[in-house]
Amino acid sequence: MDVLKTLAGLIGDNSLGIAVLASAKRIFIGYLLSMALGIVIGLLVVRFKYLDENLSPLILGMQTLPSICWLPFAILWYGLNESAIIFVIAIGSTFAVAMSIESGIKNINPLYLRAAKTMGAKGFTSYRYVTIPASLPSLISGLKQGWSFAWRALMAGEMMSATKGLGQVLMVGRDLADISQVMAVMLVIIILGVAVDKLIFGRLENNVRQRWGLNKA
Fold first, then answer.
1. Residues in domain ABC transmembrane type-1 (predicted)?
2. Inside any domain, residue 143
């Protein structure tokens, strides 16, 4: 009950709304950057054998590096500001997206590619009508994983900075030894995560499954 009362209080004084909007803006920008970078890196690695042999292990290593490890670098490079947090978000999820692109394309059923080649599909046409559609299930899974990494990076960045956001509200609760506020913010983060998964990624997965006939009868 104390958690719900605290949550109602945060909503009532609009501090929660301001924090959610600030965090949403940062993760939106950072995640879009990570998607763009991750897709480009993944496609380049698959397209060029030299990059595949030399960058694939590096991408795996970078992906396993916790996002918070980038925070000191970002602070030294950008200062303790908005750009540093967005950088941590972007770099924290870029490699998960890149790995999903690489894995999805490499694991396409060879029959699809041979059939497309037999029908005269080459180059960009083959990528557009065969390679990309066939790798969509893996890509969506990678985007979901990238989103989770982006959330973690966002919280790490906001908790280390003084800027408004859910992470900052979480840290205020810690500094005040207010367990109810800490749990209220954690509850909000969980709710937002579930909502995004159901409303965005869940719908994307269902659309792909329907198009490819993967839904259970």
1. 20-200
2. yes
